[in-house]
Amino acid sequence: MLHILYIIAITAEAMTAALSAGRRDMDWVGVCIIAWVTALGGGTVRNILFNHYPMSWVEHPEYLLITAGAAILAAIIASIMTKLKKLFLYLDALGLVVFTIIGCQIAQQINLPVFIIMLSGMITGCAGGVLRDVLCNDVPLLFHKEIYASASIVTGAVYLGIEYLGASSGIAIIVACVIGLALRLLSIRYKWQMPKFVYHEEWH
Amino acid sequence: MLHILYIIAITAEAMTAALSAGRRDMDWVGVCIIAWVTALGGGTVRNILFNHYPMSWVEHPEYLLITAGAAILAAIIASIMTKLKKLFLYLDALGLVVFTIIGCQIAQQINLPVFIIMLSGMITGCAGGVLRDVLCNDVPLLFHKEIYASASIVTGAVYLGIEYLGASSGIAIIVACVIGLALRLLSIRYKWQMPKFVYHEEWH
Amino acid sequence: MLHILYIIAITAEAMTAALSAGRRDMDWVGVCIIAWVTALGGGTVRNILFNHYPMSWVEHPEYLLITAGAAILAAIIASIMTKLKKLFLYLDALGLVVFTIIGCQIAQQINLPVFIIMLSGMITGCAGGVLRDVLCNDVPLLFHKEIYASASIVTGAVYLGIEYLGASSGIAIIVACVIGLALRLLSIRYKWQMPKFVYHEEWH
């Protein structure tokens, strides 16, 4: 079940990533690379930081084909995607919570401390988008957009909290996904933001 | 033979990288770091992704000295390099195919699937230039320039295809290098590009 | 002793990093992430390059809490920090030499060649600031500011040189720290810079 949601999520992430690449006039190779980095980069960064090999896309090269295909499709049907903007925002939110749960589970498997498990969820959920923005030469959206990384942290905390209270892993996943999704979607709807820190003194 | 070409290639990559650093008014430390990242970064990224240690430049620290020396030389003789622009474009193309073949061979040694072997070649050939552009705060050239990553993929595919047909590794290397080089040089000469995806709707 | 200096250094790095995040109008999550990357990123990059696991912040998650707390405090008292600018420049210089020594020691433990030990010191001292600048979409300051990476290299060279001459590790650390700090602080005071390489010919 989580695996099916994962495939849906990487496909959706790859498709929206393709539009970011289009804003920078990239060619189709660039579109594919940006899609790979966005959809699979979060898990890749997590695995590098926690020395967890092999990468999922080395064991399942079909993930690379699925995301490349989805990205090129998105480039072809870009005008339709613009109309489906809301659907893709929802799928991106789904991806965020699914990636987060998977990141927490992998950190649990390798017995990391509880704070690092939550961080692993956040890295898995968010690092792909940060890499996309770095490669597109933008300041990462993550750092000044609506509740995003925070929704990932909340998802991880709820998941761990419910498991700690003795519930089965399945129930913890469902509750955490629902709460995380609700938080993210409400923050899009009502433009909730974390408090911002604005500082323009000359320092260096 | 491949090893000699490798040394020539990292030297040439380091020299052209130095000019990129010069466009950003970097000091000599910056020039050396950009040269290292460009010349040795592709293999380093590949090794991190596939958990293949130690790095070549840890086993052979002389690679760091060669590339640093070449970069500082390039900064000194920058006006001569401008006149030799074509030579360095050719050497860069040579580097692309040599790095690609080496990347494929290392992935073969650790028994990765065939699609990942080609990807390993492309990462080895291209990631150094991407890191250079990120550190120089440019959108990576790779993503919107002439046939570059594609030439790397073709080189890897030809190499694997010919080996698969039963030819010796040496013949496969030579044929793949010739075809890859020809493709890259023709694409520079005739400004061949991959189709571009341009999309400027507001999305976020 | 070195450990206490390390805690002071990561705290100071996190606080100045928060101000960089403020220049880009980041929210508090962004501030924390930039602080983590700046304070702990150098050691993390070194560990990835030399396959040295686990990360210090996985073994000591309290480092993440200390730096996040320091960063948020810095955002709150930003106006006071502006007045203490000099203090933080000194603490940043302290961080540079402390990180450098620690980076050299870890490379010594895993028996790397002498040139790589110095490079490990420089990476540990400098890579966090480079990552901060990449995430804030700046050309890394390191590459065109006063003597910075060079001070790190000198610190490492003095440390190794004195140990080689037969002195105890403690004496080597103290002398290297004093010389490295003096070099860095004098270069700030008198605006010493490495020679710059400026090159604005069109190349690509």
Automatic annotation (TrEMBL), chains A, B, C:
Residues 4-77, 90-162 form the Glycine transporter domain. InterPro entries: Gly_transporter. Coiled coil: none annotated. It is a multi-pass membrane protein. Pfam families: Gly_transporter. It comes from the Bacteria. The chain crosses the membrane at residues 28-49, 61-80, 87-108, 114-135, 147-162, 168-186. It is found in: Cell membrane. Keywords: Cell membrane, Membrane, Transmembrane, Transmembrane helix. Belongs to the UPF0126 family. PANTHER family: INNER MEMBRANE PROTEIN (PTHR30506), UPF0126 INNER MEMBRANE PROTEIN YADS-RELATED (PTHR30506:SF3). This is Trimeric intracellular cation channel family protein.
